[in-house]
Amino acid sequence: LAHGAGGKATHTLVEAVFLEEFRNPLLEPLEDGAVFDGLALTTDAFVVTPLFFPGGDIGDLAVNGTVNDLAMCGARPRYLSAAFVVEEGFPVADLRRVTASMAAAARAAGVWIVTGDTKVVQRGKADGCYITTAGVGTMDRPVRLSAAAARPGDAVIVSGPIGEHGVTVMIARGELDIQADLASDTAPLNGLTERLLAACGDGRVRCLRDATRGGVATVVNEIAGASGVAVVLDEDAIPVRPAVRGACELLGLDPLYVACEGRMVAVVDGEAADAALAALRSDPLGSGAAVIGRIADDPPGLVLLRTSFGGTRIVDLLVGDPLPRIC
Amino acid sequence: MDGGRAGERVRAAIRVEGTVQGVGFRPFVYGLATRLGLDGLVGNDERGVFIEVEGASALVGEFTSALRDGAPPLAAVERVAAVPVPVTGRSGFAVVPSPPGGRRRALVTPDAATCADCLRELDDPADRRYGYPFVNCTNCGPRFTIVTDLPYDRPNTTMAGFAMCGDCEREYRDPADRRFHAQPVCCPACGPRLRLLGPAGREPAPPPPSSTAPGGAVPKGAVADGTASDGAVLDAAAALLRAGAVVAVKGLGGYHLAAVAACGPAVAALRARKRREDKPFAVMAADPEAARRLCEVDEAAERLLTGAARPIVLLRRRPGARLAPRVAPGDRWLGVMLPYTPLHHLLLRRVGEPIVLTSGNLGDEPIARDDGEAVARLGGVADAFLAHDRPIRARADDSVVRVFRGGPLPIRRSRGYAPRPLPLPRPAPRPVLACGAELKHTFCLARGGRAFVSPHVGDLENHETFRSFTEGVAHLRRLLGVTPRLVAHDLHPEYLSTKYALALEGVDRTGVQHHHAHVASCLADNGVAGTVIGVAFDGLGYGADGTLWGGEFLVADLAGFERAGHLATVPMPGGAAAVRQPWRMAAAHLDAAYAGDVPGDLAVVRRNAGHWEAVVALARRGVNAPLTSSVGRLFDAVAALAGVRDVITYEGQAAAGLERLADEDERDGYGCRLTGGVPFTVPGAELVRAAAEDLRAGAAPGTMAARFHNGLAAAVAAGCERLREARGLGTVALSGGVFQNVLLLERTVALLEERGFTVLTHRRVPPGDGGISLGQAAVAAARDRLG
Ligand SMILES: [Fe+3]
Ligand SMILES: [Mg+2]
Ligand SMILES: [Zn+2]
Ligand SMILES: [Zn+2]
Fold first, then answer.
1. What separation in Å is there between the alpha carbon of B720 and the centre of ligand 3?
2. Which string of DSSP letters, residue by residue, matches B114-148?
3. For helices A164-174 and A242-251, what crossing angle results, to 10°?
4. Is B439 exposed, middle or buried (0-12, 13-18, 19+ CB in 10 A)?
5. How many angstroms separate the CA atoms of B644 and B648, rounded?
6. Total domain count for chain A?
7. Residue A131 sits in which domain range?
8. Which residue range or ranges hold the Acylphosphatase-like domain (chain B) (predicted)?
9. Do B199 and B84 lie in a common domain?
10. Do residues A138 and A75 make contact, with C-beta atoms less than 8 angstroms apart?
11. B710 an active-site residue?
12. CA distance A193 to A197
């Protein structure tokens, strides 16, 4: 179970099992997608409980997730495939609902779903419906984005308030009677990345990552590790909606570790930070963008959070599910 | 005895090992040899002290036994080995220099409080060190905090930059003098000087704010300029304090923040600026009489207060003691210490009343150590800095002890104790680094039969603290000349200490379960190596099964354990949020105790009605609600039930509040019948339900709190009896942070002793997580011997 939480256990699994067997220069950096011959390719499998939640469903996630992975490579997403694993007895009406959201999401992102497959498995062999999507995008700009490209002095930007998707799904899943104005943030980010890359100019955007499983904390840890730099976040600058903050407090979650499905972390040249912020904010999806921290040289590989209190807490990759550490 | 043989001239080569350097051992040997009329030599090397003595064999024998019996106060002689060597016939007794090189075996000693001889000089107007804030000798003064390397010689201390004057040099070279080879020896002519800096870290300090001055204006000229004498600097600092200022004071192992303890506005300002809401402050009183005006000081407490280690001693506060209410809000205990440096003595006399003296840090950061760091971090807290130019090499927070049965119960083992080695019950075949836990962190290096537990490091979740840990390991390794081959660590995957251990290269590793480490620390504390019943009660520790333990009965020896019983598990709704909000634990425990039908008339339910249902839902559905068998969380639940607190601002606050609330004369206890055989379960729900019903029936919260303590003590005794029947074990080790609760400890020990058990409690390391590293080292050593 811990292997799915998006933290260190997932990393270990990926590195030990898949990278070992499949090793090649395109896979090696373990970025969100592979870039070759002017194209970007990515794939993702979607499993979520419940399938429907405030603000979206598994269909939106399946389209937006793949669109976003392509966008994070700096590509323009073009064509998607979709494969469904459906449990026997899954209501056709529900399947229709899912495909309708996929169609709407594809329209919004400007991509076509051009091929697909469906398998039905025995009752009990799957949990309702799983979707795998793959996507192809074109590299219209000569960018080379990488988690290993961050340099001291760069700014760390988040495209909007964090944690909405994860908290929404958790509350929906637990059937908790929590009254909160919450909805998933699932959204396509290719419009935002277009604006950002256009505004910043050559080479000044170092890295883009969508903050999905493991949240912003996991993404910035990957960047710190791959680039051999420190990421220093400013607690007071991290945008979190009051409803999300309240729900996180109640649930005992740290918003930094909560998944988003329509937010990205951008590392940009410190001098381009203002331009980047203005570009992001010119789009409704990026209206809540904020600089949340800086890249520093020391201590390499670590993420530090300057708390409102004045201390610096270490924001580490979680090995598994979050567990209290207090004796 | 044969008179002829007694007179026969012999020569012996003697090695003395232990804490024998920097403690006046060579002057002692010199004095002893010259008094007995023996010839020979003495010197320090990397292993300790080497001696050759020559003379009548009876006298050489007398000399050898006196090495142990008459050793100076700060020495700890571990081994004296004498072998006969050929007689040389050379006369005279000499102190010879340390040979260079060799393996490091000599031990660094802890810092020691100013001795009576030095205090006399401090007060003697005829003495050249009259009123000098850095007076010290081989029997007292800074040690561990100023040592940069071994051997312990002046160039390897932070006194290296002070060239001795002629007078000091003469004392330093004279084997008959109390300051013979006292490395930090100095005087006003050649040693460190005080200075008073303003809040920006620049001289001079501002005049005291007259608006808050209770005693009116401060004499002009009291504010020091850059060249003021130490006395004038102290006058100015004392005037600032008396006028209500917060002054940062550079001490032995770091900076403190000081304020007059009876001055409400000053103490309130200190709290607000340091952002420390409720956690009690410690107070320094000038002498035992002044301490007695604040607290009840019995004979045992006075021994601890006046000992060379000078810890903060938690004492029962006198009603009406002159203290600002914010010093220790709502606490019937007060942490008190006496001056342990000449600077403190001089300052306290000038202020004329007790001062709050709290760690110079913000929140849970490490105590500030160097001057630039102190100014940067404390600039917004202190109105002035009372600083000096003797650098601090190693951090050491003040140690904290409680008094239990006439002896110390350590709460924090740091300055004055660390790094004095503790014996391991089973020597380590290979050098061990034990990485400790997470909060109240210490680490431990062990070599052979000795374990060196670090000073208190702090809570590792902060980067500053983590760095202090990694730098501390490097420093202590260097001082001890130890390269660890075996690394012990906790099983909690998210502890930074675990991650640090797992990232080390070229070492073997052994994971030690948290509560096994607690029990092993108690065994090591008592020098016991056999199989015992270990009762480990604490807040939380990662269990061998991946759940969170904390109410454990282990059948354990040093190498391994079996979980033989535990508190029934309950969910922690919201994980870490349930630690910060004890009312959540009340919700979880009450939900379990009443099988979902919690009486709505309980005050804790009414106070938290807004979120009660949602939190109960988290618990029932297991949403971010890990299961725990923690007794610390049970204390939290009962504390919230008793109305102590619903939310805490520092670790252990609710549980400590419940102990204070308890009526000590109450002898009744709630019943709680173990379920199962071995392993058994302690149904905490029965205690919680009984407590809730008692309150509903009108019992006073203090009565309820006491009955809960007594009931839990009885449950411990019942568990131990069951294990004695099943396993034939008669010794019980009590460990874990919950046993810092003296009321619970007393009741539990009494019940166990009535039943004929031998009970082991902590005397040298804390029962809490500060003792974990010693336990880990003891386990690692025992396992390494099994291969
Ligand atoms: Fe513990
Ligand atoms: Mg993805
Ligand atoms: Zn002395
Ligand atoms: Zn001098």
1. 48
2. PPHHHHHHHH-TTSTTTT-TT--BTTBB--TTTB-
3. 50
4. buried
5. 10
6. 2
7. 31-138
8. 11-97
9. no
10. yes
11. no
12. 6
Q: Which of B277, B361, B377, B462 to mutate to test the interface with A (most CBs of A within 10 A)?
A: B462
C-alpha span between B234 and B341 (Å, rounded) = 14
Buried/exposed B112-127: b ≥16 CB within 10 Å, e otherwise: bbbbeebbebbeeeee
Residues B4-59: tens digit of each pLDDT: 456 789 999 999 998 888 788 988 999 999 999 999 999 988 788 999 999 999 99
Task: State in Å: Cα B223 to ligand 4 middle.
Answer: 26
Cis, peptide link before residue A299, omega less than 30° from 0: yes
Length, in residues, of chain A: 327
pLDDT in tens, B67-90: 988 998 888 898 999 999 999 999
| Cβ distance of B618 and A304 shorter than 8 Å | no
Q: How far apart are CA B241 and CA B244, in angstroms?
A: 5
Q: What is the CATH number of the domain that holds A78?
A: 3.30.1330.10
Burial label for A28, CB within 10 Å (0-12, 13-18, 19+), is exposed
SS3 B666: coil
**Amino acid A15: pLDDT:** 77
The number of distinct structural domains making up chain B is 3
Displacement of CA B325 from its chain's centroid (Å): 26
What chain B residue is nearest to A232 in terms of C-alpha separation? Answer: B463
In a domain, A278, yes or no: yes
Strands B355-359 and B312-316: unpaired
ipTM of the complex: 0.89
- How many Å apart are CA B603 and CA B585, to the nearest integer? 15
In sequence order, which ranges of B496-535 are alpha helices (DSSP H)?
496-503, 514-526
Q: Which of B5, B9, B15, B26 is catalytic?
A: B26
CATH number, residue B63: 3.30.70.100
Please list every residue in chain B whose beta carbon sits closer than 8 Å to the beta carbon of residue A302: 463
Structure tokens at B520: 């092993």
